[in-house]
Amino acid sequence: MSSSLDVQLLFYVDVITILVIDTARLHFSHVRC
Questions:
Q1: Which phi-psi region, left, alpha or beta, contains residue 16 (left: φ > 0; alpha: ψ -120 to 50)?
Q2: DSSP-assigned letter for residue 24
Q3: Residue 16 backbone dihedrals phi, psi, to 5 degrees
Q4: Where are the domains of the chain?
């Protein structure tokens, strides 16, 4: 059970990281233009 929970947590962390990076990229591109 704990191992599957760890995998779920890792998956959520990955998704949040990707979202944050995408938002930051959008922000930087807006600032550059």
A1: alpha
A2: H
A3: -65, -40
A4: 1-33
